[in-house]
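Per your request, structure below.
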């Protein structure tokens, strides 16, 4: 079509005709752009009792999660509550970093604090960015470490297409997910923490004298909807995860990349009406990995494995066309992605959600919480490892014991004992592949923290290292080759 129009323009001698044809051509081009944006949408509906996928549209395509990110922040918060690491009345101190987050937010001043429960309520209703950051810093020691914990937990739950870079979902090109992964997380939140899941059905709460209303307009509009989370940035479009129960049936739906809050809500409503009757009345049992387990820091041994430091036997993964990053879905140990400098200019989720049609609710459920108070005591991180001693300027490993030549790295951990344990485990999993190799750990420093690489050395050439790495990957053991 466009080529034909250009041909007509080239033959036209009348300026007026040329302008009219140009206007028509621009209409066609704009239509193409709109089609391209529409292609960015993704959706999935999963039977939450059996795990059966009832509907799927580009469910594995990479998308920006926006405030759906807070679902994982809340997951780790619920986990800390369930383990007794924190309580609902524990004080969450807002650092200068947390207090400086752009709206929407509670607006707590640096050094001020709120209870864990208030922070939770502000996230499920107002989608408060400052509360998410403050909780992340409380649980992980700092937000960077907490983001690694989030990604590690995602892997443990089977969310293999997700990487987290912050606790709140503000724009970051290295943070992405899929509709399928968000459905998995939605199911996990209800399966693993039914005692806290009721927070997601909260439609408003009183913060001091201020009533804060929620963004999820399907609550009270669609029968059976009991949460979970909305999200929006310009890059992501309008996102929504909904959990719905109707009698013995239960589903979780995800819509990502909506063009408006209203159209997104209507799409979700249509999916619920269509697929809820098709959900099973039977089934049961956990559909995703059990909650609990070891400290999330332990899971970092695999998550921290880089893939860009040296060539690997595999072809480079193909990145979805709509994704703005070439990041591999693994948090790299030797590289960080800077936060999007345009974050401050992104429309806030609250402002965006106000563009959706207001739904009349029968009755607003309200919880009253106290206004912020200045913290009187330091909050101890619930999961973070103790702050290590100052990193030595010289590598503490005896370099004479490090094999020269080519090696393969299988993990990296903030604890040497965990790196060594991973070496032992890998040796047992692939004794023939590593029969002539020797395992060792190498320390390196990043952001003031010492980590330990777990490597196998003794390979005489790059080809030999690549061959061994290929064999390990066939056993689902991640690795990469590097020259010592």
């Amino acid at each position: 079509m466009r080529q034909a129009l250009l041909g007509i323009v080239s033959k036209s001698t009348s300026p007026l005709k040329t302008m009219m044809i140009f206007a028509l051509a621009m209409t066609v081009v704009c239509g193409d752009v709109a089609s391209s944006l529409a292609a960015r949408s993704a959706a999935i509906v999963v039977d939450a009792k059996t795990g059966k996928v009832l509907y799927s549209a580009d469910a594995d395509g990479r998308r920006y999660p926006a405030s759906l990110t807070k679902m994982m922040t809340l997951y780790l918060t619920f986990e800390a509550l369930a383990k007794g690491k924190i309580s609902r009345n524990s004080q969450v101190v807002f650092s200068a970093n947390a207090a400086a987050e752009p709206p929407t937010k509670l607006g707590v001043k640096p050094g001020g604090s709120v209870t864990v429960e208030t922070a939770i309520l502000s996230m499920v209703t107002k989608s408060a960015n400052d509360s998410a950051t403050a909780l992340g810093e409380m649980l992980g020691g700092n937000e960077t470490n907490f983001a690694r914990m989030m990604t590690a937990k995602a892997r443990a739950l089977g969310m293999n297409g997700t990487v987290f870079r912050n606790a709140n979902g503000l724009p970051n090109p290295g943070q992405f997910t899929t509709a399928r992964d968000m459905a998995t997380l939605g199911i996990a939140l209800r399966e693993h923490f039914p005692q806290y899941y009721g927070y997601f059905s909260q439609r408003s709460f009183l913060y001091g004298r201020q009533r804060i209303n929620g963004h999820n307009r399907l609550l009270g509009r669609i029968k059976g909807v009991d949460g979970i989370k909305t999200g929006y940035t310009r890059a992501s479009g309008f996102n929504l995860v909904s959990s719905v129960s109707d009698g013995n049936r239960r589903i979780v739906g995800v819509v990502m990349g909506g063009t408006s809050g209203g159209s997104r809500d209507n799409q979700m409503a249509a999916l619920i009406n269509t697929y809820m009757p098709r959900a099973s009345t039977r089934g049961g049992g956990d559909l995703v990995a059990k909650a609990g387990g070891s400290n999330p820091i332990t899971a970092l041994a695999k998550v921290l494995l880089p893939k860009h430091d040296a060539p690997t036997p595999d072809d480079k993964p193909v990145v979805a066309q709509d994704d703005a990053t070439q990041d591999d879905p693994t948090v790299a140990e030797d590289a960080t992605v800077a936060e999007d400098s345009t974050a401050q200019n992104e429309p806030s989720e609250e402002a965006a959600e106000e563009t959706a049609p207001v739904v009349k609710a029968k009755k607003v459920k309200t919880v009253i919480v106290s206004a912020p108070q200045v913290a009187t005591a330091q909050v101890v991180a619930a999961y973070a490892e103790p702050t290590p001693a100052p990193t030595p300027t010289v590598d503490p490993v005896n370099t004479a014991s490090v094999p020269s030549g080519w090696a393969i790295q299988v993990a990296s951990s903030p604890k040497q004992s965990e790196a060594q344990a991973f070496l032992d485990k890998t040796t047992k999993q692939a004794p023939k592949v590593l029969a002539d190799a020797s395992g060792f750990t190498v320390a390196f420093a990043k952001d003031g923290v010492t980590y330990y690489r777990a490597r196998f050395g003794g390979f005489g050439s790059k080809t030999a290292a690549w061959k061994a790495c290929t064999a390990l990957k066939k056993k689902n053991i991640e690795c990469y080759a590097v020259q010592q």
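Residues 15-38 form the longest helix (24 residues).

Regards,
D.
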